[in-house]
Amino acid sequence: MKNIALLFVGILSFIGLSACGTENHAKRDSSASSTPKTEQKANSSSSSAKAGQQVSSSSTTTPSSSDNSQSQTQEQTTTSPLSGYSDEQIEYARVTETLLHYYGYNFQPVSITAQKNGKNHPVFPFDGSMVVREESVTLTFSSDNTMAGTTIVTYSSNHNGSINFYKNPNHYQDEHYLTDPVFVKTESERLLDRMVTINIPLSFDEQAAQIISKIQLK
């Protein structure tokens, strides 16, 4: 009986040691499997931080094209050859240069005068003359201040970058201008019918800048 009891106690001890070994082995496996997950989580946090740095870096951009365009426009405005003059002076200079090219003149005027006319300005300064219904300007420019070298033009603006104009006579030799209102009406109608519409470009601004200081306002 004593031997049987000792054998039973030995079997129980062996079972207990096996159970403890199995439990310790399971804990080691669990600890080993949790280590890679911790490393993966740390790597994921590091990647997110790097991605955030990249996004923050990419959000710092150079000035937009609209900013550059606005800067270029401001620079062009400040460097215009006609800057510093009034709108009226610039208009008269541009119109004069355009007319010089239209008539094929190869000179720059030595004198320029501009006279503003109200509505219903008579085409001829005689009884019976037709009138220009819109406000107009009479430009007189000369190559040498002689009658032969002088051009007189009256124009009205279309307010779209173009003008309507006619060329005034330099002198009125026919006595009918003084004595015959019907003749005056007919001739003035004929002149208005021959009015020309022409665009005023900005491409002559360099030349206009050379004559703008010569303009005298009446």
Give keywords.
single chain; about 220 residues; alpha+beta; 6-stranded mixed sheet; two-stranded antiparallel ribbon; 6 helices; 8 strands; about 20% strand
Summarize the SSE layout with pairings.
Layout: H1 2-58, H2 65-78, H3 87-102, E1 111-117, E2 121-122, E3 131-132, E4 136-142, E5 150-157, E6 162-167, H4 176-179, H5 181-193, E7 196-199, H6 205-211, E8 215-217
Parallel strand pairs: 1-8
Antiparallel strand pairs: 1-4, 2-3, 4-5, 5-6, 6-7
Helix pairs in contact: 3-6
Summarize the structure.
51% of the residues lie in helices and 18% in strands. With 218 residues, the protein is an alpha+beta fold.
Q: pLDDT average, as an integer?
A: 79
Q: Residue ranges: pLDDT <50 for 5 or more in a row?
A: 19-63
What is the H/E order? HHHEEEEEEHHEHE
Shape: globular
The total count of helices amounts to 6
Helix content: 40-55%
Physical arrangement of strands within the biggest beta sheet? 7-6-5-4-1-8
Q: End-to-end span in angstroms?
A: 148 Å
Q: How many discrete structural domains?
A: 2
Major beta-sheet overview: 6 strands, mixed
Total strand count, please? 8
Strand content: 15-25%
